[in-house]
Amino acid sequence: AISTSTVIGRTNPGGGRRVPVGLRKPPMRIVVTGGAGFVGSHLVDKLIARGDSVIVIDNFFTGRKENLVHLFGNPRFELIRHDVIEPILLEVDQIYHLACPASPVHYKFLLTSTSEVYGDPLEHPQKETYWGHVNPIGVRSCYDEGKRTAETLTMDYHRGAEVEVRIARIFNTYGPRMCIDDGRVVSNFVAQALRRQPMTVYGDGKQTRSFQFVSDLVDGLVTLMESEHIGPFNLGNPGEFTMLELAEVVKETVDPSATIDFKPNTADDPHMRKPDITKAMEFLNWAPKISLREGLPLMVNDFRKRILDEQK
Ligand code: UDP
């Protein structure tokens, strides 16, 4: 769902000279909307680790305090329960927008968009220049069109209000802290295999996705924010897998006796998805480092602990 809001404040609390955002040296004060979520909490860890002060704004619709509890008591960390569709007054240097759109005036603003802007793509792999193939009235179009609108608004803020903006198009991402039961394929397969239930493959399982480990994404987001480039940039791992191949990797990693149960697929499911990351490699000098086979065990360890906790 998309709503707009205003985050108001000044970049230079001391007043006077305005330091160009790109040249500002850490430590900075940074807002992460959606910072209690899966990707957000990993991003917060990285920013805190490098010495910045971080304010998380999260309404906990899908975010979880457990993702941040290790930071409670850290003087450089603050957590605000707040829905970003309501205005909030804060003085910060940068905003990573992982929740909903906001319209700051003097900050650098990074929108986390999505590979879903390409819809069920007719171009493969997908380059940033591809305008996409989205069914505007389909069951998943609220997400796709919502993010497309967010990109439009972000560019309008840039052109109209001269907001310094960044747009990342995030491809399928997995890793520790992912919601266990929100129905994504990697989390479903891993949780199912750990619970000794069959892995549910939708359709014939020949549709493809390209899975990136969360730390690669977080590196990409920070690199993009710090760069001189607006984007959009695809951030994803070009390693492409069918859902059947993914089930095989999960089986190898979690339980060699895991089985598959075929279920009907949802409408408008994209048949294939793979990022062309040439642009990010060239302009951001960024590329993912962790393959699915390397990253999956790290997620499995986290899921194993959480699923055992549930059973206590
Ligand atoms: N999928 C599946 N089994 C599941 C959940 C998803 O086979 O238990 C398939 C789904 O049909 C889609 C792919 O996995 O083709 C990726 O789905 P997900 O919701 O993880 O990501 P998205 O479709 O948003 O890329």
Written overview of the protein:
It comes from Dendrobium nobile. It is a single-pass type II membrane protein. It is a single chain. The protein is an alpha/beta fold and 312 residues long. It contains 7 helices and 15 strands. It has helices spanning 38-49, 141-161, 185-194, 214-226, 243-254, 278-284, 292-311; strands at 7-8, 29-33, 53-58, 77-81, 88-89, 94-97, 108-114, 164-170, 173-174, 199-202, 208-210, 212-213, 233-235, 240-242, 260-263. Strands 4-3-2-6-7-8-13 form a 7-stranded parallel β-sheet, with helices on both faces. Helix 2 (141-161) links the parallel strand 7 and strand 8 (164-170). It is globular. Mean pLDDT is 89; it is low at 1-20 and 100-106. It binds uridine-5'-diphosphate. Uridine-5'-diphosphate binds next to helix 3 and strand 10. Residues 172, 183-185, 188, 200-202, 207, 209, 243, 265-266, 269 line the site of uridine-5'-diphosphate.
Question: Short summary of the structure?
Answer:
The protein is of the alpha/beta class and 312 residues long. 30% of the residues lie in helices and 19% in strands.
What's the Cα radius of gyration? 20 Å
Principal-axis shape equals globular
Estimate what percentage of residues fall within beta strands. Answer: 15-25%
| SSE succession | EEHEEEEEHEEHEEEHEEHEHH
Strand arrangement within the widest β-sheet reads: 4-3-2-6-7-8-13
Mind sketching the topology for me?
Elements: E1 7-8, E2 29-33, H1 38-49, E3 53-58, E4 77-81, E5 88-89, E6 94-97, E7 108-114, H2 141-161, E8 164-170, E9 173-174, H3 185-194, E10 199-202, E11 208-210, E12 212-213, H4 214-226, E13 233-235, E14 240-242, H5 243-254, E15 260-263, H6 278-284, H7 292-311
Parallel strand pairs: 1-5, 2-3, 2-6, 3-4, 6-7, 7-8, 8-13, 9-12, 10-15
Antiparallel strand pairs: 11-14
The structure holds uridine-5'-diphosphate.
